[in-house]
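Suppose you are handed a protein chain with no further information: no name, no annotation, nothing but its sequence. What can you learn? This example shows the usual starting point.
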Amino acid sequence: MPRARRILLLAAGFGLAAQLLFYREWLGLNVVVAAAVLLAAAWSLRTAPLPRSDLWIPAFAMAFAAFVAVRTEEEVAAFDVLAALTLLLATTASLRGLRVTRLPFLGLLAEAWRTATGTLWRAAPLLRPATQGLPVGRSRRVVPYLGGLLLAVPFLFVFVALFTSADPVFKLWWETVIDLGEWGERLAAARDRAIIATIGAWLAGGALAALDRGHAAASRPGHGPLSASAATAFLAALVLLFVAFVTIQVTYLFGGRDTLEAVDMTYSEYARRGFFELVMVASIVAATLFVLDLTVDRRARAYVVGGLALLLLTGVILASALYRLDLYQQAYGWSELRLYAFALLVTVAAALVLIGWAIAAGRMTFALQPIVFVGFGVALLVNAVGPAGFIARANVSRLSDASAPVDPSNGARARGFDQWYAVSLGEGALPDLVAARATLPDTQRFCLDAVLYWRYSYRVAAGAGQDPSVAPSWQSWNLDRERARVALASLKEEVFAEIGDPADSKASQALRDRFHVDCMQVRPPAP
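A reasonable first move is to predict its three-dimensional structure. Written in structure tokens, the prediction is:
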């Protein structure tokens, strides 16, 4: 069988699998299956063995795909899907002999561009070579027409939907020709499935077709356009500025509670003032040194010393940002934003260390892959921790921690438990919240039960949401959702039955009245 036809059949098979996996389904186990199918198809078409230095790429790709079936946080799931897709595309480059991990910077950028654009358009050239070698005669003449009809199917569905929506006369005629109702639902489902299958087959065909290309020539670093003298002067100016900033502001940067009392500043003001600016400074320094080292014509000793000095001063500033975040977290507890900000700080700090190594060793052109590796590693750790469950457990445990600092502007209220935010974390936090009920004081336990009741029982009864206690299909299976389903089932038996039927207006009003009296005062103000 010609290779082009084999790629086309594999792409079509992936498209059919995609509509089965993703049509009207949540993201979950289906992402793992799709990633495994695409990886297996690429492996069957490989033109070279996978380099040992690139073994981490498909392993990380499957790890991120697997975490989609574990975590329910929308931000985490979106990142996991993009990371898995990026690493799967990088795997196709490795399976045709490229050592992606060891490509120099310019070669890596060129290969990333070729792979991304090829995924979008390389499926089209497959159609002609895939039909070569077919039996001559009428059957061969029919093949292009059949291909055109198959390609037109999703467009026909889309155009019919648009025409019936735009023109009531055409809609009436269409409904007369084709009796809608059940058939209309079937046609709409077939249209959506065809669109998913076409998109999946098209992208898979482009990605698999990349395996046919020869080895790309690795770009070799040359002499950059920037002189070492100019680069050294540039670094010297930045170093002087950073020295002045750290020297003058050292008390303010690390003064902690003494600074707060001296300037009459709240924890939120202290932590927020300059936090993101300091992180941005560190990020800009990392990117600037990366580009600077790639463009300098030679690496003089003064240039290397200036770069390392700038990195050291940036590390002090980054430590200040970390200290601010720690004070903020101790005073107000964890949130998704603070957890992700902490992960970003760790990633930027690691990037600074790697850039310092690259400057000292003269290996900047190969520094991007280790930075990406560390960034993906931090993301995998965040997935392993489980942001929603971690935040729920940490915020409940700090209620009994008398050593936690208290914001002088809010007093003890800052150590309260925000049940609204905890429940809004979703299914990932639900099992931990149900388990923590026994450790909460009676009033706060009632408040948490009420919020859980409104979110998961009242909204479902009112038709405002899907009942998470119902087991989904296997395509949508997710560990956090499954744990939440079990926890919610026990919660319904123990708590929701005592509160009453959401349709009972008297019970609902009594719940709202008690919640207004007992709970509105314990919710801490947003810092």
